[in-house]
Amino acid sequence: MEDYKFLFKVVLVGNAGVGKTCLVRRFTQGVFPPGQGATIGVDFMIKTVEINNERIKLQIWDTAGQERFRSITQSYYRSAHALILVYDISCQPTFDCLTDWLREIEEYASFKVLRVLVGNKIDREDREIPTEVGEDFAKRHDMYYLETSAKASDNVEKLFMQIAAELMEAKCKELPNYESSGAQSINGKTTTIRDNPCCDRLG
Ligand SMILES: Nc1nc2c(ncn2[C@@H]2O[C@H](COP(=O)(O)OP(=O)(O)OP(=O)(O)O)[C@@H](O)[C@H]2O)c(=O)[nH]1
Description:
There is one protein chain. This protein is α/β, with parallel strands linked by helices. It has a single domain (6-174), classed as Rossmann fold. Helix content is 29%, strand content 27%. It has six helices and eight strands. The chain has helices at residues 20-29, 70-74, 92-96, 98-108, 131-140, 156-173, and strands at 6-13, 42-51, 54-63, 82-88, 114-120, 144-147, 183-186, 189-192. The strands form two sheets. A six-stranded mixed sheet has the order 2-3-1-4-5-6. Strands 7-8 form a two-stranded antiparallel sheet. β2 and β3 form a beta hairpin. Bound molecules: guanosine-5'-triphosphate. Guanosine-5'-triphosphate is lined by residues 16-22, 36, 38-39, 64-66, 120-121, 123-124, 149-151. Guanosine-5'-triphosphate (GTP) binds at residues 16-22, 36, 38-39, 64-66, 120-121, 123-124, 149-151.
């Protein structure tokens, strides 16, 4: 039997080429893959992490950004616990498409889904979208915001770990007799994490 207390499904979406596959590979395998093709349909990887002595299994679905796969990728939204919407900070069109992606998310994902906006490729020097613009977009659409580099390994671990922590927190809150202690935040939004007696009753 596999030893984990929680299983969460995390789905990455966003335009082709923004770095979704590289973010997943960096987090799950610790590598920045050299030239690889576009994702075809959907790919998935697993990583088990530990938070407050609880093992959390993350099932990470990497969807193809290309339009022609849209009908396949949409079907993966529904059961997602968290959706990571990625754009490339050095490519304005990938930011301009965010409202289209949000429309898809609203149509196909659960209303309870945790939504995180990620500006990737911050190692690049040809930035086109200032941090504040990304932050402001996220705030207006009630999303967390984080900037990452899959290449330089900036904030990638933080991204997935904080999503895991946030989802675990939300799950524990559904249980009776919940109290909280300790806090972590993704860029200002605070999510409470605690040593979790309530979680011991799960699984
Ligand atoms: N400089 C830089 N390049 C990156 C970074 N992440 C990804 N790339 C590059 O961006 C290109 C696309 O990366 P992918 O991870 O395949 O992009 P994707 O979003 O999965 O693309 P699709 O599968 O077509 O949807 C590749 O050439 C990567 O090497 C990053 O953090 N910094």
